[in-house]
Predict the structure.
Amino acid sequence: MHANSLHSDPTHGFTVATHSDATASRTMAHPAASVIGAVKSYGYGGGEVRALDDVDVDFAAGRFTAIMGPSGSGKSTLMHCVAGLDTLSSGRVLIGDTDLGTLDDRQLTQLRRDRIGFIFQAFNLIPTLTTAENIALPSRLAGRKVDPGWFDLVVSTVGLVDRLDHRPSELSGGQQQRVAVARALAARPEIIFADEPTGNLDSHSGAEVLTFMQRAVAEFGQTIVMVTHDPVAAARADRAVFLSDGRIVDDVADPTADGVLARIRTLGGVR
Amino acid sequence: MISLTFKNLLVHRRRTLSTMVAIIAGVAFLAGTLIFTDTLTSTIDGVVADGNADADAVVRAPESTDVGFAQSGAPIPASLLSAVEELPQVAEADVRITGYAQLLDPDNTPVVEQGDAAVVGFNWIDSEALNPFRLVDGSLPAEGEIVIDRGSATRSGYRIGDIATVLTRHDPQAFTISGIADYGTRDSQGGAGAVLFDRTTAEAFLSTPGQVNAIAATAADGVSASELSDALDAQLDGVEVLTGDQFVAEDQGGVDDQVGPFRTFLLVFAAIALLVTAFIINNTYAITVAQRSKEMAMLRALGASRRQVVTSVVIEATVTGALAGVIGIGAGIGVAALLQVLIEQLGVKLPSGPLVIQQASMIAAFVVGLVVVVLSAFLPARGAGRIPPIQALRSIGVENVAVTRRRWVTGAVLASTGASLLFVGLSNRQIGAAGLGALAAFVAVLVLGPIYVRPLGRLLGLPFAASGISGEIATQNAIRNPRRTARTASALMIGVALISFMAVFGASLTTSFGSSLDKNFHGTHVIDSGVEDPDGGFSTQLARDLKSAPGIATSSEFRITSATVNGEPDVDLEAYDAATLDDLIDLGTVDGDLTSLGTDGIAIDRDYASDNDLQLGSEVPVALSTGERETTVRAIYDGSEWLGSQFLDIAAFDQLLPQSLTYRIYVDGTDEAVDAASADLPSAQVLDRAEFFDQVSGIIDQFLGVIYALLALAVLIALLGVGNTLSLAIYERTREIGLLRAVGMTRRQLGAAVRDEAIITALLGTSTGIGLGVLIGWTVVRTLEDRGFDTVTLPVVPLVVIAVTGAVAGGLIATIPARRAARLNVLDALEAV
């Protein structure tokens, strides 16, 4: 599905004003994010460790991509660098047309706020805020209100309509992750990064969260990049990119759980 | 366990430091107060000791009441000197004559004001052993000449040969300055002004011809001081003989009596500062112990006993407290120096000298600080030790936020007790009940803190929340842990409540005085000496002159001395021109006859009469420094805030205390007449009604200023606590801050949220403090209605200033934690546990 159709497709039963040119200009030919010659190294000289070693990868708009790899393969580092949470030692990261290397801390923060969504493994929510407040947080930080129609749609999609006034401590782990998904979706970012979103959940809740993420891609044309080491989670994605020792070693379209598992075995490290 | 404790201290250096700052401040204030008062005592003691260094014996009149420092008792005949000199045990002897003598500078204003330091005249004593003064320039005083101290000479610019006017009990008199003297090695008696006369002039102007204050003697070779005083005692009748050491000790005891209340006054504020410190430290340990509950549980799971875990915290507190105590004592020296400056800036003149650091005082300050720290740490540590290891390991290291039922009950009981006591005090005019009620209300507010913090915090956070999500997050953060916030805010509340109470009390005192001036004072002018302690003043000649001066309708002189009345010591006994007093000051209904007091009558107020079961005609013994007298109650008047509970007629003072001076004169006359009459007496300030009001309200403001300055430290410590709590909270919320930053909170927004949280916490403290202070102030003032407080005045501007200052200071104190939060690396923060 084309990302642009989200804003014009009358089948959704509502219309939304285009909120950013970047969103409007997304096309299949134009990836949501690109990584070009990315190197991330720690230490100097003989003690240098390369967490990312000359990585080139594009993340297509409107697609659900899984980044797989054993612990220490560099998959989290890659995600952090693409998401503007960390900086590269060399190479470039583009979100849309924006080169992250040209942004200062304030601009990076605004980029994360306005154009990127996050789902972390755990402790995703601000404990003092209610579900509704947590979902609206990025928009509120930008001084905007969430479009009420969109908000309702997102909330009903993840099944949180009757939990809006609850605080995180009153929600189960699965519900908390669903709130995190809703928050990531609510600001309509160009791209959502999910870091082991099901890592802390039982398999049932995990499957539920993954379903919502799939629906976001399928129904809203959302771009999602998910870091995981769970083959079952990866199998839900449209594409799986395999990392090992800071390099991309494989790139599989429409992965299956068994295929992913087999691939990981050859990489030598399922936890 | 112990090595782990030290490791903890080092690893959490920042936390250890911020805890220490609060203790250092508390100990420093305590140590500073002690150093300051020790210095004051020792400076005056030094002056006293210098003055009597070589006198082996002193002969003076027996004292019928406690004669204070710088007060003189009854005179003795000068003729006793020859009887003293006859004794073979005596080497040298001379008379001592002291009395009021005030030097005027070339512009005819006093060189030393009586309100600032003593102004004393002496006779020049030829014996070097008996005279603490040493001539440094010029010659000894002959008749019509004086020697002045070098301090006064420097201040006035007088040189030898100049002619200067001296004020005494008699009319102002001009003298030629024949010499300049040092007091021992100092240029003056600790800032006091001294005028030295020849013996005949001294007797005439300072005492009465033929009368002296004392005779001092040195012992002949081989005679001890006690042998000398025994010999003198055997030789002389009707006098008391003291050895030099006894005399010095007695005078120094008098110094201590004077400095003592001042020390107590300052120690009260040190105690308040320490109370606030205890709150802060207790809070810090409660937070850090909660943060470490997991670590402690781990230790317990690994086999450490509960006692070991608690002990490790207590040892940590002991080390922190000891270290901070040492630094605090060092800082206390600075505080003492600061106190000297502050007190002087506020217009209170005290003799000052090099700082005196006494071991005992420093040990006391150290121990008090240490005990406060260890006790403050022990309670949370014991609480942590009680948590079963498994529960602590499972929890996420946050304090228990639930408000217990017991807290509700205790708070409600205290609040209702306080309210009823305040009400009882208010309706029955019982200040004791009102005071207890105020205390109960105070404790109730402390206990109820965790309960009201949430709703009140939300209310105070409204303006912040309205400005955006940062304000909302700040508000939520401020109230997310009510017990912690309550402790932080309570520390601030204590200081602010006391300041607010004093503000209400002071403002009401000023307005009540104003309305009493309007209602109860019927004169046109007050001629005031500006002296604060009894026995000072100006020549009584002015009051006598006013009686016959043209343009003066009526006047009543007012003198005051310290006396024992009806067995009660240290009463400020007043004397007035009783016959005219009622024309100038409203005494209400007077039973008996004020004109009949004479030299042996006393007037008392109605409450005093009923409290002591006295009627017209009752006998009341009165002991003055110069002797005892039985007086008869000849008049009973309604109480008035203008007078004490009893007074004598001026005639009685003239007879009993011939050396006494005029403290004040109430006058009804024209401006010109009053000015003309007192033109020659620069030490007498002529004030019209408005000026008199300004002077009194100025004194009230000065007093309030001192109290505000002293309470400011408690407020400052509490604000440090706000910063401290915030720093610890930010450490605790690192993960959350990382999340906020990841999803798009800018550094600026984060900084604003931290700052707003501090401001809301500070506002919680200042608003409850102001509320409580005003409530208690209002009740106390209303309770004192029959003692001259007829209006409650809310000083709106000062109260608003307090609230705003508290909020601004809270915001400022948050700068450092806010910056630290904003600088956190997002990824590191996200990965924090």
